[in-house]
Amino acid sequence: MLDGTSPWRLHLLKNAALILTSIFFLPFSTFVLVSSYVLSIFVANDASRKRRHIRSSPTFEPQAILVTGVGMTKGLVLARLFYEAGHDVIGADFEPNGVPACGRYSKSLHRFYRLPKPTADDGSVPYINAVLRLVKREKVDLWVSCSGVASAVEDGQAKEVVERRSSCRAIQFDVATTSMLHEKDTFIQETQRLGLHVPETHHVTSRDAVHKVLHQTKRRSYIMKSVGVDDAVRGNMTLLPRRTVSQTYDHVSQLPISSKNPWVLQQFIKGKEYCTHSLIIEGHVKMFVACPSAELLMHYEALPPDSALSRAMLAFTTEFVERSGKEMNGHLSFDFLVDENVTEKGAELVLNPIECNPRAHTAVALFSGQASDVTKAYLSLLKSGTVNGNGHASDTADKQVVFPEEPGKYYWIGHDLITLILLPLLHLLMGRIRLVEWMQGWADFSNHVVFWKDGTFEIWDPLPWWCLYHIYWPRHFLASILQRRRWSRINVGTTKMFGC
Question: What average pLDDT does range 407-416 have in this prediction?
Answer without folding.
Answer: 96
